[in-house]
Every structure is written in C-alpha cells, then in structure tokens.
Design a protein that fits this description.
The chain is an alpha/beta fold and 352 residues long. It has two domains: 151 residues, Distorted Sandwich (Spo0b-associated Gtp-binding Protein, Chain: A); 180 residues, Rossmann fold (3-Layer(aba) Sandwich), CATH 3.40.50.300. Helices cover 18% and strands 25% of the residues. The radius of gyration is 29 Å and the shape is rod-shaped. It starts with 5 loop residues before the first strand and ends in an 11-residue tail after the last helix.
Length: 352
C-alpha cells in the first residue's frame, strides 16, 4: 500500500425526503381528512479516525462520497425512512480543511474521534401537519431539507512521541530500523526515505514509544525545496525531536556538522516558529567513522554552542541503548508535566 498523506474529496449529505399530500378515504369515512406522512431525514456524512488505517490511499480512487437521501412520506401518516449515514474512515491525525475558504474544519487526533462533516437534510412535513380549524384540507407539504456539499482536503499529519530530524543520509533510517520494528529503505545515497516511517520502540512491561522517521530535509525546505512542506508538516505532532547530525562530513551538503544542525533548526523556525523551540536531543551519528579525538572536539564545539551532543553508531550499536533510555525518560517527564498541568484530553469535534 502506498503512503498517501493528502487527498481532496467532495462530501455530500443526503437530502431530506418530501412530505406526502394524501387524504384518508374509506368506505364508511370518505372524508377522513389529511393523512400525509413526513419525509425521512437525509443521512449524515461522518468522518471518523481509526488506528486500523495509516494512509489516505484508500480514498484516491473515488472523489465523491454521498450519504443516502431520506424517503418520501406515505399515506396513512406513514413517515419515510431516514437515509443511512455514510461513515468514512480516516487515519488518526487527519486534518480536514475546506478547500474554498482554507478554514480547518476538524482535527481527528485520537482513535474513535469523529465529526459530522455534512448534516443530512431534515424530512419534509406531510400535509397532515398543516391541518387547522380554518383549513381542514391542506394540499401542501414540505419538500424536505437540501443536501449539504463540501469540497475538502484531508491532510494526514503523523502522530508520534519522537520525531527524527536531519539532513538526507544522516542515519535516520538505519537508527529506526535498529531500535524498532520499522524496516525503511537504507542505502548510501541521499533521499533514500521518500515517505515517513513509524516504528515502536519496546520498553518491555513498561510499554514503549512511537518514533517517526521524517524524510531528510534540505536548506530551503520551508520554501518548498527538496521534499518541502509535504513532510515538514509531519514534525508538528511529535512531542520532541531526535536531531541526527552526521559526525562525518563525507558526502554532506553542508560540510560543518554544527552548521548542519543550525540549518535544520532554521528551516523548522521558518516553517513554524515554535518548532525550533521544541525539546531536542542532538545525536552525532556515524561515530564509528570518525577518529576518537575528532569526535571529542566536535562534541566540545557543540557544548560551546550550548548544545549537548550524544555520540551514536547504529552499525556497531554503541550508544543505542543509552539513547533509547534517554528518550524514554524525556517522554515520561513530559507526560508527568502534562498531568500536573491538568490539561485533560483534547476536545472531540461534535459536528459542523
């Protein structure tokens, strides 16, 4: 299955059923009066988030989704059947944006979260509803409420505890393949990773945490260069970042590792100001390719800039366990802080 993180679709609710114009006429009651029933309510079009889906690929083959209309009312005060709701499954982390206005309509950020995107039209009233003392034979009925149509863009923003940042070929895919069950493509050329990858780092009985391998960024990504905005948006949901900087300068677009670190943070700040201020653990990858003295000098240079850099070699395994422990402790501290703030669960959209 392909990873698709953005689609545009048209959603249409069901129109309401017409009310009925009918008069009761029986052998011993030829003038029984109006008995036209109400029309049924049109079906709603509902979006709901599920962890059973992790891509929007299943929505690419169909552009229009429509709920069932209500059924017309019948004689003898029989109400028409209401239309069935159309429930559309999307991955957790999907944002719904109105294409015409650009307004964000909903953010389905947890499992089971749902929103009524288009409400069905109300059922029309039958002629029995219009009977009065002055008008005992009303010959009118409502047409029923119209359907609502929305042209929306669905944007998937991955939700993860830890996001991996860094230039292409910084060792992100190798690291996530070592510490988790993810199996991204690994090779010795830039832009090996073309789609985000999620992996779960197990902590035994304590549980685990989700780590996201974001495709490599380049200078100018905030302006659309390289993979640009398409993948920068995926870092917005991460609690904190592992910023991977290759200790080796071989084949890197920016020779100095400290400048590479600053360049990526610059792109984060240009895309969204608060992202560069989010907590980071800086990791010097490919430490096995650099002489020990040169590595120590590099760590000291980062320290002078006020940054604690942790050496790592995913190939030899040096520093991997310690880094996972550090990530786990950082995450637990953040969760405890959230509980102290008593922020509670995010509000669930209740419809539009």
């Amino acid at each position: 299955m392909r990873f698709v993180d953005e689609v545009e679709i048209t959603c249409i609710s069901g129109r309401g059923g017409e009310g009925s114009v009918s008069f009761r006429s029986e052998k011993y009651n030829p003038r029984g009066g109006p008995d036209g029933g109400d029309g049924g309510r049109g079906g709603n079009l509902v979006l709901y988030a599920s962890t059973r889906s992790n891509t929007l690929d299943h929505l690419r083959g169909r552009r229009v989704y429509k709920a069932e209309p209500g059924v017309k009312g019948g004689s003898n005060n029989r109400h028409g059947r209401s239309g069935e709701d159309f429930r559309l499954k999307v991955p957790v982390g999907t944002v719904v944006v109105d294409v015409e206005s650009g307004v964000e309509l909903a953010d389905l950020d947890h499992d089971g979260c749902e929103v009524i995107l288009c409400r069905g039209g109300r059922g029309g009233r039958g002629n029995c509803r219009f009977k009065t003392a002055q008008n005992r034979t009303p010959r009118k009925a409502d047409q029923g409420g119209p359907a609502i149509e929305r042209h929306v863009r669905l944007e998937l923003k991955l939700i993860a505890d830890v996001g991996l940042l860094g230039f292409p070929n910084a060792g992100k895919s190798t690291f996530i393949s070592v510490v988790s069950n993810a199996r991204p493509k690994v090779a010795d050329y830039p832009f090996t990773t073309l789609v985000p990858n999620l992996g779960v780092v197990s902590r035994g009985w304590d549980g685990g945490f989700v780590i996201a391998d974001i495709p490599g960024l380049v200078q100018g990504a905030s302006e659309g260069h390289g993979l640009g905005h398409r993948f920068l948006k995926h870092v917005e949901r991460c609690r904190f970042f592992l910023h991977l900087v290759s200790a080796s300068s071989y084949g890197e677009p920016v020779e100095d590792p400290l400048e590479r670190f600053r360049a990526i943070n610059g792109e984060l700040a240009a895309f969204r100001e608060d992202l560069a201020d989010r907590a980071q653990i800086v990791v010097l990858t490919k430490a096995d390719l650099v002489p020990a003295e040169e590595l120590e000098e590099l760590i000291a240079r980062f320290a002078e800039a006020g940054v604690e850099a942790v050496p790592l070699s995913s190939v030899t395994g040096a520093g991997v366990d310690a880094l996972c422990d550090k990530c786990w402790l950082t995450l637990q501290a953040m969760l405890e802080a959230d509980e102290d703030d008593d922020s509670g669960d995010p509000e669930q959209p209740d419809g539009l």
